[in-house]
Amino acid sequence: MEQKTKIDAQDGQQDLLITREFELPLELLFKAYMEPEIVEQWMGTKVLKLENKKHGGYQFETTDPKGNKHRFNGAIHEFSLNQKITRTFEMENTPFGVQLEILEFEQLTSNTSKLNMHVIYESAAKRNQVLQLPFAQGINMAHNRIQDILNKLK
Amino acid sequence: MNLRRDVFQAIADPTRRAILLLVASQAMTAGAIASNFDTARPTVSKHLQILTECELLKQEQSGREVHYHINAKKMKEVADFIEPFRQMWDERFNILETIMKNYKPKE
Predict the structure, then answer these.
(1) Sign of CA dihedral B41, B47, B49, B52
(2) pLDDT tens figures, B68-95
(3) Residue to test with chain A: of B54, B78, B87, most A Cβ within 10 A
(4) Confidence (pLDDT) at B1
């Protein structure tokens, strides 16, 4: 089966490109980034703040299985409805620095759309550190979450 | 210590990455590997032990000597180190897609 989410990360570069095609109209895909309660569900975080506008900011908080809270925040530089979001992203109290994220939303057909997410890190070394974070646990949590959400939708 | 070692933890160390690069060109004994580093011999042995435990290196007996070889199969897995990160985003986007397919605008 072809992978839906693709990541292009060249050796020695400080950026990467995440692309994904959705079986969703462009407007619905973009809405998933706009509404705090929807962001909370698919990102698996609490949304403390989400100001979707130029010069706006956001702050998310997750709780790990040990009960520790982790916060993420960033500043929004561009917010163009159904087109583009440019923002920074930072994991608080970590040595990973600030990353720049450029999200471009594209309509493919009336029922399908595509997201291009270009992420630029402070250095190639920082990019690789982030890529090596222990994500396995997060993946399992996501599996449980999708089940919870499907149950709620019934 | 005989904990099951994590591959990514293993390659996070610069000396261990240097050892892998060295052994990638040819199989070597522990002594030959150690002679390439200023680090104390027991420290190099410890690194070799870790790399062997997580199967990045394989030991092969030839006569009285033990040679360390690269385990190409495991190295391939490391080359795919981006895979967990990709899966994390794939999961998130799958959830996003599921939610939005069922999305009903508020009245």
Answers:
(1) negative
(2) 998 877 776 666 667 778 888 988 999 9
(3) B87
(4) 36
